[in-house]
């Protein structure tokens, strides 16, 4: 009886460890849902921007189709997806915009809303944001 319990516990542990290993092997891109979810996040973000009186002025003269395409590429690349970002650097994109820290943080809030609406779990949202953090200094006060 004890041997049978030990065998069952060992099998459960092996199953649990295997599924953890499988999840670690998946890229963040795969964990959040791949291409469809990345597109949903970007579409939701565009909608969030559209309805933000504070953030929309930064985008009023933007080519929305290009913005969408490049942000999908960028988010895909940042999350280790199969994409190559072909746009300008973050400094080039945000140069002359003089985005304040307040507005940057508001933009992050809008992006979090976009991920939530796309069904991305909070722990994965944190991982996505951590991938984006290095671009912060290239965006604010440029």
List its salient traits.
142 residues, mainly alpha, Globin-like, 8 helices, globular
Write up this protein.
- This protein is an all-alpha fold and about 140 residues long.
- Helices cover about 70% and strands about 0% of the residues.
- The protein starts with a helix and ends in a 10-residue tail after the last helix.
- The protein has 8 helices and no strands.
- Helix 3 (about 35-50) crosses helix 5 (about 65-80) and helix 3 (about 35-50) packs across helix 7.
- The protein has helices spanning about 1-25, 30, 35-50, 55-60, 65-80, 90-95, 100-115, 120-130.
- It has a single domain (about 25-140), classed as Globins (Globin-like), CATH 1.10.490.
Task: Briefly summarize what is shown.
By secondary structure, this protein is mostly helical. It has one domain: Globin-like (Orthogonal Bundle), CATH 1.10.490.10.
- CATH architecture label name: Orthogonal Bundle
Tell me the number of strands.
0
Q: Indicate the radius of gyration in whole angstroms.
A: 20 Å
In N-to-C order, the SSE pattern is: HHHHHHHH
What is CATH's topology name?
Globin-like
Helix content: 55-70%
Given helix and strand content, the structural type is mainly alpha
The count of helical stretches stands at 8
The fraction of residues in strands falls at: under 5%
Q: Shape from CA axes? A: globular
Give the SSE map.
Elements: H1 2-25, H2 28-32, H3 34-50, H4 56-59, H5 64-78, H6 90-94, H7 101-117, H8 122-132
Helix pairs in contact: 3-5, 3-7
